[in-house]
Amino acid sequence: MTTELWMLVGVVSVFITLSFVQAMSLLVAIGAKAAASSRDGLPAYQNGLAGRAQRAVANHIEGLAMFVPLVTVIAVAGIATPVTALASKVYLGSRIAHAIVYLIGIAWIRSIVFAIGMAALIALLVAIVWQ
């Protein structure tokens, strides 16, 4: 399996972890009964860890929508290079860092780490187009 595909496994692992953190923080924020309900009519939980976790998961899903197709094209077309491997590693690192700083609530660092991840995605796209 290519480095890019291993990094995809890593990115999905971060997603699974974030989803668990989101579920547990929601459980703490609104209680077990409300969390197990349909959640209709519940007040918004946009503040605190539960809100940050919800937004981090949403952001990670958006990232997956870009990373998965790029890595898939690289793997299927057999065009993996040291550049695509490095870009995939940088992307995984940025997603791990992004999740941590998002959950902690450090806005400026979160934005910088997000930009690093986007640069990695652009590098993957350029590597595909230039093949």
Keywords, separated by commas or semicolons:
131 residues, 5 helices
Descriptive notes:
- By secondary structure, this protein is mainly α.
- It has a single domain (3-129), classed as Four Helix Bundle (Hemerythrin (Met), subunit A), CATH 1.20.120.
- It contains five helices and no strands.
- The two termini are 20 Å apart.
- Domains counted in the coordinates: how many? 1
Question: What is the mean predicted local confidence, pLDDT?
Answer: 94
Distance between the termini: 20 Å
H/E element sequence: HHHHH
Q: Write the CATH homologous superfamily.
A: Membrane associated eicosanoid/glutathione metabolism-like domain
Number of helices: 5
Number of strands: 0
Largest sheet: none
Spatial extent as radius of gyration: 17 Å
Strand content: under 5%
CATH class: Mainly Alpha
What CATH architecture label applies? Up-down Bundle
Shape: elongated
What is the third-level CATH name, the topology? Four Helix Bundle (Hemerythrin (Met), subunit A)
Structural class: mainly alpha
